[in-house]
Amino acid sequence: MTQRLVSVWQPFFLASESTPAAIDAAAELEQLGYHRIWFSAGFDEKLPPRFRELLDGTERIGVASGIATVWHTSPAEVAAFTEDAERDHPGRFLLGLGASHAVLVENDGTDYRKPYSKTVEYLDALDAAGLAPERRVLAALGPRMLELSRDRSAGAHPYFTTAEHTAEARSTIGPDRLLAPEVAVVLEPDPQKARAVARQYTAGYLTLPNYTNNLRRFGFTDDDLAGGGSDRLVDAVIPWGTAEQVAAGLEKHFQAGADEVAIQVLNGGDATSFPAEAFRALAGKLIS
């Protein structure tokens, strides 16, 4: 693919704020030219109604689950939701699926075993329910899951990765599958302040083996993973600086083979307000 699509990954405000406020934010993102809005489906059996509310409340912008977990959602319920959304809003809803993390899945007593096999079983159930592979993508990091995303879905939606991983992912899934990495950013030119904001975000993710194992494959060491991440790790995972500098960091993912980059703006721990000014500034640099 040769597209260069700029999307938004904003899980908290758009998922939890009042419906009118969320729709207003989505409408502005649509007007700014963003391609798609990604946010988490949570841990319920059904996809939350917010996905449909945003589709109904906007005209063009896409909406995607980033992600719905294969341990909690029902394939039949998810397939029905996706088909209904496709009927009423053709081409605008994309189902993002993933195996999540053991510490999160086992909190409710679910036994996190063989996540790859569980994902295959889930995809089999979606096939049986009649959901076409092009309506779904997988949250893939390692080679096996990337290959599965290539063979059983429209493509891959990696999270918490580097541009080097994007290049590897493109090589694995080939030229004809969607590659849409999430990339968190900090709009702050001061290095100390920017990295402090970034580490509020990285600290939690660096406790999850799925992410740390993936980073180790790209040469990061235990020292890099400690204390919220070394400067080297933070700078590789999270573009920061002025809007121009952040745009240059995102450009590395496009150069590495991404079709779509889903931008998550870090607000310094403030998940309750929508970072409209940041998305306006980045749209000015990234969207023509």
TrEMBL record:
Pfam families: Bac_luciferase. Residues 19-128 form the Luciferase-like domain. InterPro entries: Bact_Lucif_Oxidored, Lucif-like_OxRdatse_MSMEG_4141, Luciferase-like_dom, Luciferase-like_sf. This is LLM class F420-dependent oxidoreductase.
